[in-house]
Design goal:
Blueprint: H1 3-14, H2 18-38, H3 60-71
């Protein structure tokens, strides 16, 4: 929607009665809520394997041992 179309729409809305504006707001709110419900949610499992190349060639136990050793100063 262009700015011109948007402003034209606002101009048309300004001609509505207060009650019509309230009803329009309610309808718009319901429409937005419905769009939110239809938007697919992400699953934590989509992150599986993300960044695995960072850990390539690193022994997990050795890494943990080095981290623990650094805690002692």
């Amino acid at each position: 929607m262009t700015a011109r179309e948007y402003n034209s729409l606002l101009d048309r809305v300004s001609l509505l009665s207060r009650q019509e504006k309230v009803e329009l707001l309610a309808d718009l709110a319901n429409q937005v809520r419905e769009e939110d419900r239809s938007t697919p949610k992400h699953d934590i499992m989509e992150l599986a394997g993300l960044g695995k190349e960072i850990w390539e060639g690193i022994d997990a136990q050795e890494y943990v041992n080095q981290e623990r050793a650094s805690w002692n100063g």
